[in-house]
Amino acid sequence: MSKAPRLGLLLGDQLSFDLDLLRALDPARDVLLMAEVEDETRYVPHHPRKIILVLSAMRHFAQALRERGWRVEYVTLEAPGNSGSIVGELRRWQKKLKAGEVHVTECGEWRLEQRMRDCDLPMVWHRDRRFLCSREAFARWAEGRNNLRMENFYHGMRKRNRLLLEPDGGPAGGAWNYDHDNRKPLPRKVHGPFTASFKADAITRDVIDLVRERFTDHYGNVEGFDYPVTHADAEALWRHFLDHGLAAFGDYQDAMAEGEPYLFHARISAALNIGLLDVRQLCEDVERAWRHKQVPLNAAEGFIRQLIGWREYVRGIYWLRMPEYAQLNFLGNRRPLPEFYWDGQTDMRCMAQVIGQTLELGYAHHIQRLMVTGNFALLAGIAPPQICDWYLAVYMDAYDWVELPNTLGMVMHADGGYLGSKPYCASGKYIQRMSDHCGNCAYRVDHAVEEDGCPFNALYWHFLMRHRQVFSGNPRMALLYGNLDRMKAARREALWARGEALLARLDAGERL
Ligand code: FAD
Ligand code: SF4
Question: Where are the transmembrane segments (predicted)?
Answer without folding.
Answer: none
